Amino acid sequence: MRALLIMGPTASGKSALALALAERIGGEIVNADSMQVYRDFRVLTARPTVEEESRAPHHLYGHVNAGELYSTGRWLTEAVSTIGKIVARRGIPIVAGGTGLYFKALTQGLADIPAIDPGLRQRL
Question: Cα separations (Å) of 54 from 28, 48, 72, 89, 99?
């Protein structure tokens, strides 16, 4: 599965570049920022504006409640599924963000680790 990857530090112009590319080549933007997944943090995380999101399809932005647990594994599952759907309709996925672990997971996979017992997590 192929995708364009745009990664860099905060305020380096990743979102603007992704949007310009998406508009030019008909791409669809897939979020790779661990904070921009949260619904209520649009301003705090400098998530694309509603107007920017209307100019090109945006995926995995603002789809998680603030109190919800969200992991790199969950992001990877959602990102791979989203990228697959974009490719299936002959779109061009543009993965943009600054969370290095997300890019590492996407390009190299995640280490096999056992599932965490929810009861233990609750007690801790």
Answer: 11, 10, 27, 19, 24
